[in-house]
Amino acid sequence: MKITLANHYGMCFGVRDALGLTERAAAEGAVTVLGDLVHNGVVQEQLAALGVQRGKLEEVGQSGTERVIITAHGAAEGQRRAWREAGFAVTDTTCPLVRKAHRALAQLVAQGVQAVVIGQAGHAEVRGLCGDFPGTRVVEGAEDVAALEFAPRFGVVAQTTQPLGKVLELVECLRARHPGAEVVFKDTVCQPTKDRQEAMAGLVREQQLVVVVGGRYSNNTRQLSETARRAGVAVRQVETAEELQAEWFAGIERVGVTAGTSTLEETVQAVVARLEGFGAAGF
Ligand code: SF4
């Protein structure tokens, strides 16, 4: 069995920086992360082992520590301010590319558009994006676009971890739904997501099966799996090497491996090592 790693895979700079800041903060004393720092169980276990506590961004003031951390997914400006005004020392690990999406949305709203975010309703990043702009509509699929009422101007941004192809399709869907409206789209999909999605397109052309390594609740990991499925390639998504089962690879000669932006390199290498073991065993 030949194993090929994607040209781009795994942890992005935004998550790496957030993790580094959090580890340094934990070394200095008690600290609480407001939400999931990243949607990756392995990373969360490591942070718990360092004594990092968990709280909720929405529950302002409900923290057992005086120092709190805003995650790489970002927050609404109002929430950031509320924690500071409540007397907490806030370390903000919001990714610069999430901040860019916030700025893009703010500029569109200032132009008087009906704001639309293409993304996963309820995801921390999307909640943050919508938090300061009540009335923003979130769409994840064509059926959500069909439910949007007419507005003379729509201003559209995307959750940073959505596949660009899907985002562009939904923008076209909105134009077709309301031909009389102006639709202004700002591409806020982050470059690491684009790189991983493009690399996945390369993998599905050449591989019989793709293993996607990442957290069950990680949006970008889920999107990588979806891209492989849409291309008609078998896909297995795992959080750890131990979840791999030898029988999945019976008769498979070419397997590709990729990983979401919150996956540790050591997890990817453990997956590759286990696959090599299966290959040596003749699967
Ligand atoms: S996935 Fe993109 S937006 Fe999210 S932390 Fe990584 S670089 Fe930043």
Topology readout:
Blueprint: E1 2-5, H1 13-28, E2 32-34, H2 41-49, E3 53-55, E4 67-70, H3 77-85, E5 89-92, H4 96-110, E6 114-118, H5 124-131, E7 137-139, H6 142-146, E8 153-158, H7 164-177, E9 182-185, H8 191-206, E10 209-213, H9 219-230, E11 234-238, E12 254-259, H10 265-280
Parallel strand pairs: 1-12, 2-3, 2-4, 4-5, 6-7, 6-8, 8-9, 10-11, 10-12
Question: What low-confidence regions span 5 or more consecutive residues with pLDDT below 50?
Answer: none
User: Total strand count, please?
Assistant: 12
How many domains? The number is 3
Helices and strands: which structural class? alpha/beta
What percentage of residues falls in helices of 4 or more residues? 40-55%
CATH C-level category of the largest domain: Alpha Beta
Question: Rounded to an integer, what's the Rg over CA atoms?
Answer: 20 Å
The mean pLDDT is 95
With strands numbered from the N-terminus, the spatial order across the biggest sheet is 1-12-10-11
Element string (H = helix, E = strand)? EHEHEEHEHEHEHEHEHEHEEH
Shape: flat
Gap between N and C termini? 7 Å
Describe this structure in words.
Helix content is 42%, strand content 18%. It has 283 residues and is α/β, with parallel strands linked by helices. The chain has 3 domains: 2-10 and 191-280, 4-hydroxy-3-methylbut-2-enyl diphosphate reductase, catalytic domain (Cobalt-precorrin-4 Transmethylase, domain 1); 13-95, Rossmann fold (3-Layer(aba) Sandwich); 97-185, Cobalt-precorrin-4 Transmethylase, domain 1 (3-Layer(aba) Sandwich), CATH 3.40.1010. A 4-stranded parallel β-sheet has the order 1-12-10-11, with helices on both faces. Strand 6 (114-118), helix 5 and strand 7 form a beta-alpha-beta unit. Helix 8 packs parallel to helix 9 (219-230). The chain starts with a strand and ends with a helix. The model has no long low-confidence stretch (mean pLDDT 95). The structure holds iron/sulfur cluster (SF4). Residues 12-15, 72, 95, 97-98, 160-161, 190, 192-193, 220, 261 line the site of iron/sulfur cluster (SF4).
